Amino acid sequence: MSSMIPRLRLKSLRSRLMLLVALAITPIAVMTVLGGMREREAAIRASEENLQRLTTLAAANEAQSLERARQILVDLVSVPDLMGPAPRCNALLADVLDRNEGYVNFGLIRLDGEVTCSAVPMLHPVNLGDRRHFRRAIAERRFIAGDYVFGRVIRKHTINLTYPVTDRNGAIVAVVFSAMDLAGLDTYVNEINLPLGSILATADSGGTVISRRPDPERWFGRKIAPSLEAAMRAPSHQSVVVVGEDGVERLHAFARVGEPSLSEYTVTIGVPLETITAAAREAQLMSLLGLAATTLLALLAAWLAGDILIVQRVRKLMDTARRIAAGDLQARSGIDYGREEIGRLAAALDEMAATLQAKEAARSQAERELRAADQRKDEFLAMLAHELRNPLAPISTGAHLLKLLHSDNAQITQTCAIIARQVEHMTSLVDDLLDVSRVTRGLVSLSTQVLDLRKVVDDAAEQIRPLITARRHQVVLDLPDSAASVKGDHKRLVQVVANLLGNATKYTPEGGHIRLQLRAEADREFVLEVRDDGIGMEPALVERVFELFTQAERTPDRSQGGLGLGLALARSLVELHGGSVSAASPGPGQGSTFTVRLPRFTQAVASPLDAAVREAALVARPLRVLVVDDNLDAAHTLNLYLAAAGHRVEIAYNGIDALKLAEVFAPQVCLLDIGLPDMDGNELARRLRRLPETAKATLIAATGYGRQQDREAAAAAGFDHYMVKPVNTVQLSELLARVAAPDAPAQGAPR
């Protein structure tokens, strides 16, 4: 929540004034919106009552049609000709069909389902034994209004109304039926005016449309929407809003067609919700437009009044403040000092400017004096460091001379060793002091060259070895196998590493552990990390450990000396090399870690032939090398490099040719691309391992894939080494030299 506050802050007085106006109008806006919502709800409630009344009338109209059909069937059952010969029965039913509109057929069904007579002539025998209405009429012995069917005799959309025919003993002997034309089922809707977009539909017990307005023919026999069917089947039959298949929201009301003994049909009328709420929405829109006009006029008045009465005067104060901030302490606002707030603010601003003007004069004088004192301090330190080194040389020479002349006198020898150690310590302090003075004055120049950080670490460790030995520390140097090339001053980088190791020895108890690790991180820098298990640091000390004269607390004797210059000097020298140094510690007693990051030096890529000439000396004896790569340029360039180095090379551009060539050539080394056209390099490696000619060959993956999972897949396939394109020719030469050596070690996992 607090992070959102700055984004909500208003940035001008006029905006704040307009906000006050907006807040004053907000209650009116809320009441307008709420009133519109209430009007909309009232319109919907009124429409629900009217819609339910219309739906009930439509259902009653359809119930009358079904009741009339039932009466016709009951009357037919009592006519003797119905069960008479087929011609007389057909004539009877045809006469009934002519006398009654809205029907498309009448017929008689025997108990085996065969239609024995029909008002409409049958072109072929028809069996209705599978019809549900026929089976229900026999089983329930009553009038049945069936579901939607497409007539087999008349080929029209109908509903079949059935009634059982019984003999004098009450046994059912047949079923008489009438087929009602769905196009004329619901005539009630033609007598009322529904709003545009409204629908009236009747569905049977299975949710199939048997009547619909408008477009009845398109909807006969189709299932109604699941949401509408669920509302139809609800026992309460409450009005609901349903989104139709055309995407229109409609308010639907529902009603059953007659009693359950008459039918299982349900009628629904749906009126577009937009039509119902149009009047309420129009009224609300007019209210909102009036409110918007009122709000706009109020905001405009606030804007103009705020500009004249407030903003223009505040701008004068802002301009004065900016001039003061720019250094013009003679600037004044020029506003009359009245009793109102802006006048008082102007008076305070002018008073502040006068006070700052006086203080600035005093500060400038103090700054000039401080710079002069700082310059004298730097010059004094430089001179002191320089002069202190003069007497150290004869003291050291004299101590070694005494030791040489009186080597048989143990007391003199011991005294000379003490003098030599203290002179060495004093020299180190003087060197640090002198170097810091030069760095702070920008007088240090680096003699840069391409060098190997591993050699820097070795030289620094050798330099600090006497102190490590004296305190019996266990030191581990974790260095990479390949060269760690950087561009820098060898002497200065040795000084950095020696200072870090020396710092670790000073603050690590006797017998403690120190670990120096050098590793490549990403492709742009090397990381040198010195970690100890010494006294550690408080968080406050970690933040300022690289400042001049900063030291952790040690024992009162200060046996290791030091002025707190080593780490400050190390940071300055690392930054001169374009790197960075940082410190970390979990806390007191938990050791410390110092990390140096230096940019990696990338040697310019020479031509393959030049590289081959320079690196040919690495090859102990020529090898048989198989190069497999579908990239012609890559394959031939690698061939030139290897051939110039003295190796025998064969090239294949796909896996199949490589396998055939391997059986004849029997290569000792296989350089395989992973992305080959016919099989990938991993599958090729597995097959080469199964060949007797290449079972013990050195397999090297030379690919553009560099993910960890790619390396793991290569290891599982049998590769010995993994190189990412473009292949480092120096590493490749060293690798081939190791393979060619008589005592070459066993192959390991891909690297």
Highlighted features:
5-stranded antiparallel β-sheet, alpha+beta, 751 residues, single chain
Describe the protein in words.
This protein is α+β, with helices and mostly antiparallel strands and 751 residues long. 49% of the residues lie in helices and 18% in strands. The strands form 5 sheets. The protein has a 5-stranded antiparallel β-sheet with strand order 2-1-5-4-3, sandwiched between helices. The chain has a 5-stranded antiparallel β-sheet with strand order 7-6-10-9-8. Strands 12-14-15-17-16 form a 5-stranded mixed β-sheet. Strand 16 and strand 17 form a beta hairpin. The radius of gyration is 51 Å and the shape is flat. The N terminus and C terminus are likely disordered.
Topology overview:
Elements: H1 5-8, H2 13-77, H3 86-99, E1 103-110, E2 115-118, H4 132-140, E3 144-150, E4 157-166, E5 172-181, E6 199-203, E7 209-213, H5 216-219, H6 226-233, E8 240-243, E9 249-256, E10 266-272, H7 273-276, H8 278-325, H9 341-405, H10 410-440, E11 449-452, H11 453-470, E12 474-478, E13 485-488, H12 490-506, E14 513-521, E15 525-532, H13 539-544, H14 566-576, E16 580-584, E17 592-599, H15 608-615, E18 624-628, H16 632-644, E19 648-652, H17 655-665, E20 669-672, H18 681-690, E21 698-703, H19 708-717, E22 721-724, H20 729-740
Parallel strand pairs: 12-14, 18-19, 18-20, 20-21, 21-22
Antiparallel strand pairs: 1-2, 1-5, 3-4, 4-5, 6-7, 6-10, 8-9, 9-10, 11-13, 14-15, 15-17, 16-17
Helix pairs in contact: 2-8, 8-9, 9-10, 10-14, 11-12, 12-14, 15-16, 17-18, 18-19
